[in-house]
Task: structure prediction
Amino acid sequence: MRISAQSSQFIFNLPIDFIEPYLYDQFQKLMDKNFVPYDSVVEYLSSTIKEIVFPSSSYENREQVLKRGKVVAWKDSKSVFDTFTNEIDITFRSVDSYINYFMLLQILVEFYLNNKKEQIPMFNIQILDKDGSLIYTIIFDEVLLKSIGELRLGYQMYDIGEKTFTITFRYNFLDIRWEIDGDKSIFDIPIDFKPGPLDKI
Result:
């Protein structure tokens, strides 16, 4: 057993259809001019990802007042998927004179203005064990842009440290697949259901 988890044991790449074909051609000229050593724009942008924040989950309780003022709590009845914050934060390193920032900005502007695109393609995160074998696949479906962080420029800035920016996405559906023993969702719980009188109506 390892006492602490290795935070880098995951794989995430932006989907191929994240970028429109005409933008591939446009960005390739920029990559060639700057001698960027990647075969495609999506590989280049994926290589600048530093961190992904998986959404937190909060389980609210409903309260009921019993006789003599005793308050008791009950599980909430809303969907388990709505207990998550439904947001993904992806942090990128600013590289090559902020080229990746403006590439991503142009991609996201195109998505926002394109009425034929309702959602960004599905995002997948693969979680690996210490041997590099796949354990879980996290699937975010029907992804939407929510915000892109600021980019601070300044002549007086002499710090050569790493600069980052964050893009926040919202998703509608989440699934986590257990990959070791078949392809099963962790949300598919075998519940012993006993029908009541209302189920017969």
